[in-house]
UniProtKB/TrEMBL annotation:
Biological source species: marine sediment metagenome
Swiss-Prot/TrEMBL keywords: Metal-binding, Riboflavin biosynthesis
Pathway participation: Cofactor biosynthesis; riboflavin biosynthesis
Keyword Transcription regulation carried by entry: no
Name of the featured protein: 3,4-dihydroxy-2-butanone-4-phosphate synthase
Pfam families given in the database record: DHBP_synthase
GO CC terms, sorted: cytosol
GO molecular function, one term: metal ion binding
Cross-referenced Gene3D superfamilies: DHBP synthase
Keyword Transferase: no
Amino acid sequence: PKDRAYTIRKIIDPNTKPSDLARPGHMPLLGAHADGLIGRNGHTEAVVELCRLAGLYPGGLLCELVSDSGEMMTAKELKALAKRFNIPLITIGMLAGFARSVLQKGQHRT
């Protein structure tokens, strides 16, 4: 767990050089489309877009929640979990719509 946390911190640090990390590593890396959710409506792009919109470095950690069956949670299961624990839930579509509205207002990504 500590080595994974270290790796995550290094991956999103813009000063990290390839030589700072061992390869092959123990964490799969994903690259987002350069245009974010405008270019591709995917989970990876949603993470990066959310960081950009928050004014943060455009890199983050993505994980999927697993249901009791061992499969990835469905939208229905995620909604139930969010309701149970009073967690706000947004969809990639909602985030993409917001990102488009920000760009249409002339605000630029960081």
